[in-house]
Amino acid sequence: MSAACNKDRLLCDQNLKKAFNKIDSDRDGFISQKEMRRAFGINTDEITQLWKELLGQLEPDEKQKISFKDFKNGVRSLVTPKIEVIESTIKDVLDKLHQNNVSSNSIIQEEDKASESC
Q1: pLDDT for 64
Q2: Residue 26 pLDDT more than 90?
Q3: Is 26 helix (H, G, I), strand (E, B) or coil?
Q4: How far apart are CA 5 and CA 46, in angstroms?
Q5: According to a count of CB atoms within 10 Å of the terminal CB, is the N or C end of the chain lower?
Q6: Where are the alpha helices (DSSP H) in the chain?
Q7: How far apart are CA 5 and CA 26, in angstroms?
């Protein structure tokens, strides 16, 4: 549950606007692929792929630039499913750890009973 709260806090309009403004270096109210590459300091296939994913989620203007509204919606649509997978994986791991702990405690209790009878 706290992961969901953290996700909501992380993806709130205010935080996304801060991120958008840091990327939008020319302050024209749009992010270009060039600005995205400059913001991350790399010019790699990963940035190109991220850009394509963002554009696939959004409605960029004719100049292939992304508005804040589209940026916000795109980031949320890209990040939310990944966070949900991470949350589910963490829950599964915690459940297994709990089951193992319960099993370990049962074994320890049985060993304690056996040693008491000696």
Answers
A1: 78
A2: yes
A3: coil
A4: 28
A5: C
A6: 2-10, 13-23, 33-40, 45-57, 68-116
A7: 33
Looking up tokens 């804040």 gives 68
Q: What percent of the chain has pLDDT over 90?
A: 14
Amino acid at 105: N
| d(C-alpha 93, C-alpha 71), whole Å | 33
Cα–Cα distance measured from residue 51 to residue 116, given in angstroms and rounded to the nearest whole number: 66
What gap in Å lies between CA 44 and CA 54, rounded to an integer?
16
Of the pLDDT bands very low, low, confident and very high (cuts 50, 70, 90), residue 1 is very low
The CA angle 64-78-39, to the nearest 5 degrees, is: 55
Give every CB contact of residue 87 below 8 A, 6+ residues apart in sequence: 3, 4
